[in-house]
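The protein record quoted for completeness.
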Amino acid sequence: MLTIASRLDVMNRLGRAMADPTRSRVLLALLDGPGYPAELAHDLELTRTNVSNHLACLRGCGLIVAAVEGRRTRYEIADPHLTQGMRQLLEAVVAVDEGAPCVDDACECCA
């Protein structure tokens, strides 16, 4: 059973991961299915080193898992619930005040 502390930990891990645009792009790519660093780098127009660093971060947060396949490593989202939750999150409508940027030092809720 998830406690409030463990739920908060999950939310914080997701928030940190999705706060970075590149990690968000990697997660979006993995929503379509498993990926390999070289292919993700090509598809996202990033360097392989950059993608590998972000994959390591996402893996460290527990959001993705790695499976060695011979000389390659396949990455995928760690849990189907996470995939489902992100898909639902992408369908959400966010009420945004036009002209109000969402950055830490500009958001009233974060100040």
